[in-house]
Design goal:
Length: 824
Amino acid sequence: MRIRPWVSHVQVVPKKGGLTVVTNDNNELVPTRTLTGWRYYCFLDGFSGYFQIPIDPEDQEKTTFTCPYGTFAYRLMRFGLCNAPATFQRCMTAVFRDMMIEDCMVVFMDDFSIFGNSFDACLNSLHRVLARCEGSHLVLNWEKCHFMVTEGIVLGHKISKDSLEVDKAKIDTISKLPPPTNIKGVRSFLGHAGFYRRFIKDFSKITRPLTKLLENDAPFIFDENCISAFETLKHHLTNAPIMVPPDWDQPFEIMCDASDYAVGAVLGQRINNHFQPICYASRTLNDAKENYTTTKKELLAVVFAIEKFRSYLVLSKIIVYTDHSALKYLFAKPDAKPRLIRWILLLNEFDIEVRDKKGAKNLAADHLSHLENPDMDSGGIEVIRGKFPDEDLNMIKTVGEDTIPWYADFANYLAAGVLVKGMTHQQKGKFFSDLKHYFWSNPYLFRIGPDRMPRRSVSGLAAWNILENCHKGPTGGHFGANLTARKVLESGFYWPTIFKDAHVMIKSCDACQRPGNITKKDEMPQQSISVSEVFDVWGIDFMGPFPDSQGNKYILVAVDYVSKWAEAKASPITDARVVVNFVKSPVCRYGCPKAIISDRGTHFANYLLEKTLKRYGVHHRFSTACHPQANGQAENTNRALKRILEKTVDNNPKIWSQKLEDTLWAYCTAYKTPIGSTPYRMLYGKACHLPFEFEYKALWALKKVHLDDITSGRERLINLHELEKLGSLAYENSRIYKEQRKKWHDAQLKEVKVFKEGDKVLMYQTHFKFSPGKLKSRWIGPYVVLKAYPSGYVDLLTERGQFKVNGHRLKLYHKDDPVRNGKV
C-alpha cells in the first residue's frame, strides 16, 4: 500500500514459545478473590485474542507500519495499541456478562475461568461457555486449556478450594534476578514484587531502603541496606505463606496498628476459632503523615485497611482490633477535628465493631507497622523481634489471651505492687474501685462477693473444669445455666463470665440436648405447593383399616390440590393393583395431571405404579418419611371424610362402605374456605342440585325446562363467563388464604431453624414405642447435613447411607470445646 501519514517502523521482539504477554493497562481487578473456594475448575485461553477483533476500516491506516518487505496496515486489532486491552476486555465482558453475574465464571482478558462446587455444575457451566464461544466465533487455544481440575494457575496465582498461593514458576524467575544497577531496574523489581505484596508481611518495611532510591534528587547508592532488602524480599517471595479463601457468611476481622513510620493491617477470619490470614497490607507514611498525632495515625490505619480490603468488606460484618482504646469513643465524639470527622463518615458506610486489644496481643498488625522494634515493657510477654512466621500469627490468641488470666492486673498489684502502665485517669479510678473487692492470700487471689463470702478467682481450663463438675459431675444433676452458675458460686469460685459460660456449656452438653419432644413451635416455616391449573396435582393416600364392610377395610382417596375435588374407593387390601386401577379412573375423566403426591408406602412406591404413571407422563412425588404434612391436602381430606362417616353410620360401623358415595357427595358440595366456593361449583360453574331442592321448590326447579335455541345459547354464554370468573376468584382466594395461613403458622414458631452443609443434627424418631417409665430419648444421632433445601427438606448422612427428612424433626447438635474455641 502507499505511504500513509501514520506509518511507523516496527521492531519485532520474539518471546519464548511464540506467546505474547497481555498487560493490564485498564486496571481491571485481578479476579483471584472470587476464584478461590470452589471444588472444580476449567481454565480456557483465547487463541491470538486480539486478532479476533476487527478494526474499523476508517482507522486501519493508523496501524500502518513499514518493513523491508513493504508497507502494511492491520485489519485486525494488534498488540501495542493504546486502547487494545480495554477494548478486548469490554468485548469479552459483553459476551459473557450474564454468566459472570450468575457467578459461574470469571473473564480477565483472554483467560476464562469456570468453576463450580460440584462436577455436574462445573460441567454444565463449561457447556454453556463453549456454546457461547461457538456462537461468538471465539477461538480457543486447546494447548493451554484445562478441564475439570481441582487447582490451577490463574494470573500468577495458584488457586484451589482451600488456599491461594503464589505461582512458584513466576517466583523462581524473580529469585534469579541480579541486583539492579539503576533506577529503572529498582522500579521494575518493585513492580514485580508488589504484584505479590498481599502475601508478604512488612512489605513497606522491607522495601523502605529501595523506595528511598526512587525519591526525587536521591543519589543511586545501592548499599548494604538495599542489598539486604533485595535479598530479604526474594526470600519472602520464595517462602510466601498460603492464604485461605474468604467465607462470605462469616464476619471479617482486621488487626491494624500504626507506628511512627508506617501503618499495617491484616485481614482474616476465625476458622475453628483460630485466626487465619486472608491478606496483608502495609504502607509507609510521608513526611506530613509522620507528624500526625497517635490518635490520627491509629484511625488512619483503620481507614487504610478498610479502603484496601473494601472489596471483601462491603455488606459484611467487620471486627476491627486496635491497641488504641480511644478509637472506640471517637465515633461518638461530636467536636472532633474535620479530618477525623471525614474519616469517621467514611467508616460509617460499613458495619464496624471496634474492639480494644493491647499491642502485645495484636501481634500481626503490630509487627507490620513498627519499622523499628525498640524494647518495650511487655508485662511478661516476649518482645517481638525480627521475623514473624505464620505459626506465630495462628497463635496470636494463645499468646494474647490464654496465658494471661483476667485477674492478672489485680494479682500483680496486690502481690508485688506492680501497676499497669498507660492507664488513663478514668481507668485508674475503675481499677482501684474494683480492687477493694479483692485480697491476696499467697498463692491465690480471692474476691469478696455481695454476700460477704470470699471466692477464689479462677480462669481458663480450671474454670471450665469447675463448671463441668457443677453441671454433669456426680453431684451436678444437669441443671439449667443459672442454677449451675449459682452452684459454682456456692462452691467458692468466681470469674466474671460465669453465667455466660454456663449457658455455653448447657448448649453443648450432649445429655441436655436429647430429652424433650417436638411441638408445633419447632416446625419449619410453611411452604405452599404452587399449582396453576385444576387437576394439575393430585394427592393420594390410604385410610384405614376400618371395620369389615362388605369385605372392604380400606379407603383409597385422591384429591385435587386446586379445586379440592375428591375421589374415593373402598378396597379390601392395600396393594399396587388397587392403586393402579384407581388412578386410571380420574386420569381418564379429568386428563393427565402433572404430578401425583403420595407417601412412601410400598403400595405407592412400586414398579407397577411407576410404569403406569410414566405411560401417562405423570411425575410421582413422595413426601418425606414420618412427615405427612408434605401431602397435607390428602391428609385434610382424609380427616374430613372420616368425620362425615363417623356421623352417618348410625352406630353401625359395618355399613361405612355403603355410605361412601353419599359422603363424597356431601364433601364435594361443602363450602371450602381456601377457594371461596364448593369444589362442585368451581369445577362445573354452578351449584349442585340436591334432592331436597325438588321438594321445597328451589328457583331452578321452577324454571322452564324447554328453552328456544337463542335463549339457550345466551344462557350458555353467560355460564361460560361465570365459570371463568369463578375460577379466577377461586385462585385469588386460595392465594390469600395460603399467605394468611403461612403468616399465622410462622408467627407461632419459636425460632426459624437454618441448617447448612456440614452441620451436625439430632433427629426425632416418632416410631419408637416406649413403655411407661422408660428412661430413653427419642432424639437419635448426631447426623451430618449433606444438603438443605429451601422447601425445608434436609439430606442427612449416616453410617448406612443418606436419606431425606423434614427439618421439623431436626435440631442442631452442639458439641465443641469452649476452652479451645475461645468461648471461656
